[in-house]
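Lab notebook, bench 4. Still working through the backlog of constructs that have no structural model yet. Next entry is a single chain of 244 residues. Request: give me the structure tokens for it.
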Amino acid sequence: MTAQPAATDDLLSMEAVDAFYGHIQALRSVTINVRRGEIVTLIGSNGAGKTTTLKTISGLVRARSGRVMFDGTDISRVDAYRLVPRGLGHAPEGRRIFSRLSVFENLQMGGFTRKRSEVNEDLARVFQLFPRLAERRAQRGGSLSGGEQQMLAIGRALMSRPKLLLLDEPSLGLSPILVQQIFSIIQEINRQGTTILLVEQNALQALNVAQRGYVLQTGRIILAESAADLAANPQVRQAYLGEI
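Model written out:
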């Protein structure tokens, strides 16, 4: 797949990106784009390179070649901590909350780039989206249930008021009821104006909420279509939606 020029409404574009872990190539000429206001999903099997794609966008893995454009600027060589105030939020796989800090303190950590006067507004937004976190605000993060920890990880990422939110496996390990709840909240976050790039093993749920999607296989993009077309694609249905 050849890199295409970024459209004027693209908030994010990866253009022919290669990424490595040591001598092992994890991404091979990956080209994707996310337009402002969209939910775009990236699906694929374990080890396909989905998490590496998000890490490359957020500066945790360096692109060996190609480039990553965000909000009109090449961020391929920008350190991760400098991307947060530029509007890039990342809720990583495994949640990675601060287990010994309270819910409130975890959220404060997420808002470290914000002005103090703005943090209260951001807290109010997070507590409106996740009332359970308001109830648990004084509780240590490590004592929360899996679903509550996932809410906290997303809420912490939202505290920086990102233009683009990267979500890595938000439904992993959750009960079906909580999965539905998390995906409803993801849609609400998007309705409130946050663009989302979603990595998700639950391909059916992901395609139900996204406008467009990409299929990643062994580090390469093999399909790029609307979410509806991907959900109807026999190859996708057999490989990722559990149909024979």
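Notes after review: Residues 1-7 have pLDDT under 50 and may be disordered. The first strand starts at residue 10 and ends at 21. Flag for follow-up if needed.
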